[in-house]
Amino acid sequence: MLLSLHYVIIATLCYYHYIMLLSLHLITRISFPFSIGHRHQQTTAKRVEEVEFDGPCMKTEVPGPRSKILAQQLESIQSVVQVNFFCDYEESKGNYLVDVDGNRMLDVYTQIASIPIGYNHPALTKVMTDPKNMGTFVNRPALGMMPPEQFSEKLVNGLMAVAPKGFSRVQTMACGSCSNENAYKAIFIWYRVRAGVLSFFFQVPGCPDLTLLSFMGGFHGRTLGCLATTHTKAIQKLDVPSFDWPIASFPQLRYPLDQFERENAREEARCLEEAEDLIVKWNQKGRHVAGVVIEPIQAEGGDNHASFDFYTKLRGITKKHGCAFLVDEVQTGGGSTGKFWAHEHWGLDDPADIVSFSKKMLTGGYYQKDSFQPDKPFRIFNTWLGDHTKNLLLTEVIKVIKTENLLDQAKRSGKVMLEGLYDLQDKYPHLLSKARGIGTFCAIDVKDEDTRNLLLLKARNKGVVLGGCGTQSIRFRPALVFKEHHAHLFLDIFNDAITELK
Question: Mind telling me which residue stretches traverse the membrane in this protein (predicted)?
Answer without folding.
Answer: 6-27
